[in-house]
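G., the chain you wanted modeled:
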Amino acid sequence: MKVSSKKTPTDLFSYRVMKDKRILVYRDRKLVKMMDKKTSSRLITNLDGKTSMETHKILAKATGH
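Predicted structure as tokens:
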């Protein structure tokens, strides 16, 4: 029996907001980008209240993936 290991787009990206308001963006649990404070503040505002699919698209665009 073959088990499918397909990942949904919402599984790919995650992020963490640091104490100094920088954002670390992860893809498949690996750090792919560390945003500067200026970019992070715009991204935090943009991510506020978004669904998981919208968040995925925003993070993919921000990291160039």
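Residues 1-5 have pLDDT under 50 and may be disordered.

Shout if anything looks off.
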